[in-house]
Amino acid sequence: MLRRLDADDPRFKGAVFTPGLNLVVADRLRGSAITDSRNSAGKSSLIELIHFLLGGRVTKTSLAARKPLREITFGLEMSWPNVDSLKVWRAGGRPNVVRISPDISDAEAHEPMALDLGDDFAELSVETWNRLIERDLFHLGDEHDGVSGRILLSFLARRASSHGFNEATRTFARQAEVDATTNLAYLLGLDWQLANGYRELAARKATRTQLRKAVNDPVWGRIVGSIADLRGQIALAQGQVDRLRAQIAEFQVVPEYERVKEQADDVARRIKQLSQDDVIDRDNLEELQQAITEATDVDTTYLEPVYEELRVVLNEQVRRRFEEVKDFHRSVVRNRRRFLDAEIAEITDRLEARRTERSRLGEEQARLLHVLNDGGALEALTALQQAMAREQATLEALRHRYDAAQTLEASARQITTQRLQLQQAVSTDLDERFEHTSEATLLFSQYAQRLYGQGREAYLAIEAGPNSLQIRPHIHSDDSRGISSMVIFCFDLTVAVLAHRHHRGPDFLIHDSHLFDGVDDRQLAAALQLAADVTEEENMQYIATFNSDDLDKAARQGFNAAPYVREPHLTDRLDDGGLFGFRF
To answer: Does pTM top 0.90 for this prediction?
Structure first.
């Protein structure tokens, strides 16, 4: 259950909720001008903020993203499974971050990004927060394609801004029926995975439609083509490949040409190897020549002047030792130069020998190539082989296009067959889940009869349609005002109660005042009393926003709203009467 909605802006009028029926009322003050309106008092904004704090997507036009509200941090306190109370904070200026207390993002939440803020707080991504909502409020496992916590919440808290009150089984404009009914199937206890099969078929059909359009396009159609045209092209290409293969099979190359070709290949390999060896020897030669320039005698003439400057007299024994060292060094340098000169001479000889060999091999190669060119037999065979390779590539491409065209043509039949099989499977499943569908139908009928009296025909029609699971709530109409709104009211109450009873959803239901526009006074009073009774029986919570004059209509029919009116008390006063304490 929701407990409190607040903000860090002192002007914000915090909302307090309790179990059972909760009414948030906007009043018209005495002396208000005709132009004053309660449409901007904040009734719908309250529901928008609840969605925002429960992981709703933020766009440039979202309420919390508006400039006057962007820096305000809003908070929602609520009960949570296995936790006495959970507090959620989120700001429009940081829409991708949610702060919660206490930290419930344990290992089961699979959240590697969670930032530990202490024992009681955690900062999470919005995606992680939505996974926690799916896990704990809706008891969804890791794999639940087609079922979304955000869509499930939209059925329990419809928004006028999303046109959520247009029809009972959709929560926003242009919502795909298969997406809506898959999520409703989960809340009602039906096989949502079977229902989701329609969504997968719809995606395949959409893909096929786009491919079909591409095939009909004069340019893109050449990528695939028609099956009939491709059959003829494949037959011609296959015939050309067979003809060339036969010619190659009959082609005879005399042994002399094969031998000459092998010789030419061998000569080419030897020339290539000689060139590689030259590169290595030239690098070595350059290093040796550099080493010779570095092999010089050490100059020691500077030593005696240095010692004289230091006033050190060198005796004859030291002088002799210097001469011995100089002689030894000259010997080392001479030996090194002789070794380097020998290495250089050897490399130079090898380079010259390879140059001569390469010249000879070049002449031999020219002779062999001339023989091959004059012969012509090998050239003709090569040309035939190249032509057959091209034709084989063309044939393979045509076959791939043919396979794609066949798949495209067969996909329509496959989709039709699978749709019929899925429809039959869903129909069989509905028969097996008769208790679930009966419970939902009886509950809806019971609620409708509380509003319109015994004997009023009211039921839920649930069947396997050709394109989706079909769920149609029906209350027989006698042209009374607001009948479609009361269909939504009874349907939402049924869905919320069943989801809560069977642990597939939370324990709250929220409606905007737009739902009750145009509803007859008697049905309005009966709906509020029904909500009060049902939430008490089911240990649930119902939150609704109202204009005070609508409640006056219900009061004239005997409904006492006073015990259920909660803070804040909204008014149409321009400066501080609304939810935010200021107008923007």
So the answer is: no
At position 299, the amino acid (one-letter code) is D
Q: Where are the alpha helices (DSSP H) in 13-79?
A: 43-53
Closest to 511 measured CA to CA, from 90, 46, 80: 46
DSSP state of 55: T
Helices (H), 433-514: 434-452, 483-501
Structure tokens at 492: 């939402």
Distance CA 555, CA 478 (A): 24
Report yes or no: 155 and 187 within 8 Å, Cβ to Cβ: yes
Identify residue 138 by its one-letter amino acid code: F
Q: Rounded distance, CA 535 to CA 510, Å?
A: 12
Closest by alpha carbon to 37, among 570, 543, 568, 516? 570
Virtual torsion, Cα 39, 43, 48, 51, nearest 10 deg? -160
pLDDT tens-place string over residues 95-112? 999 999 999 987 444 444
Of 73, 5, 132, 180, nearest to 506 by C-alpha is: 132
CA-to-CA distance for 81 and 73, rounded, in angstroms?
Answer: 25
- Say which residues have a Cβ less than 8 Å from residue 466's Cβ, sequence separation at least 6: 419, 423
